[in-house]
Design a protein that fits this description.
This is Histamine N-methyltransferase. By secondary structure, the chain is an alpha/beta fold. It is built from nine helices and nine strands. A four-stranded mixed β-sheet has the order 3-4-9-5, covered by helices on one side. A three-stranded antiparallel β-sheet has the order 6-8-7, with no helix packed on it. Strands 1-2 form a two-stranded parallel sheet. The longest helix has 13 residues.
Length: about 230
């Protein structure tokens, strides 16, 4: 959905231009949904889509080995750098693929969000069994500074209704717990007392605020635009 919104903006800015859109996505389900959406969307005649079921690391390995290092005018990394093992190396590689005047758009949670505080306090206690780096815009801007890349950072205030987390047996609440903790079936796998601790903390002002009877988690995001 976001890709097609981006493409429509590019088309509006450059009418009639031919666009190559290369998709790197490890989830076959997400690729299938993407293809279904493309099939239903009009005004995509000038866009050539290529889908690659692979992670960014697998993409990097493949194009490097085959010496298929194509230059791009725009690369986006929306909510994905949490799942990269070596973030500075990933940034350096994709920055090297930028054409003249091209840009990378990175979207991650803001360093002022409730996520940062949640991860700092509880990250080491969450029973993670997959790759997830607790990285925020604070961490990323430091990495970009060390790499010497020019960038601009914009914050987007955002909230997420977590009220259902406080209703026992609520299906949506259970899914929210999984999302907040990056842990599948958190309610049944969490160590004793951990959920109660987090529940108590999530009600504090540094994590969320209450409005019209709802708990709204500070879900603020940062948009980082990296120059070629």
């Amino acid at each position: 959905e976001i890709d097609l919104q981006i493409l429509s903006k590019v088309q509006a800015q450059y009418p009639g231009i031919h666009i190559n859109n290369e998709v790197v996505e490890p989830s076959i389900e997400q690729i299938a949904k993407y293809k279904e959406l493309v099939a239903k969307t009009s005004d995509l005649q000038n866009i050539k889509f290529a889908w690659h079921k692979e992670t960014s690391s697998e993409y990097q390995k493949r194009v490097t080995e085959k010496k298929e290092l194509q230059k791009w005018d725009f690369i986006h990394m929306i909510q994905m750098l949490y799942y990269v093992k070596d973030i500075p190396a990933t940034l350096k590689f994709f920055h090297g693929l930028l054409a003249t005047n091209a840009k990378i758009l990175i979207v991650v949670v803001s360093g002022t969000s409730g996520w940062k505080k949640l991860w700092e306090k509880y990250g080491h206690r969450l029973p993670l069994d997959d790759l997830c780096q607790y990285v925020t815009s604070y961490d990323l801007t430091q990495m970009l500074d060390e790499l010497g890349f020019k960038y601009e950072c914009y914050d987007l205030l955002s909230t997420m209704d977590i009220s259902d987390c406080y209703i026992d047996g609520n299906e949506n609440g259970d899914l929210l717990w999984d999302f907040l903790t990056e842990t599948c079936n958190f309610n049944t796998t969490a160590p004793p007392g951990l959920k109660a601790e987090i529940m108590k903390d999530l009600q504090k002002p540094e994590f969320s605020f209450k409005k019209e009877g709802k708990f709204l988690f500070n879900n603020s995001l940062s948009f980082i635009v990296v120059e070629a």
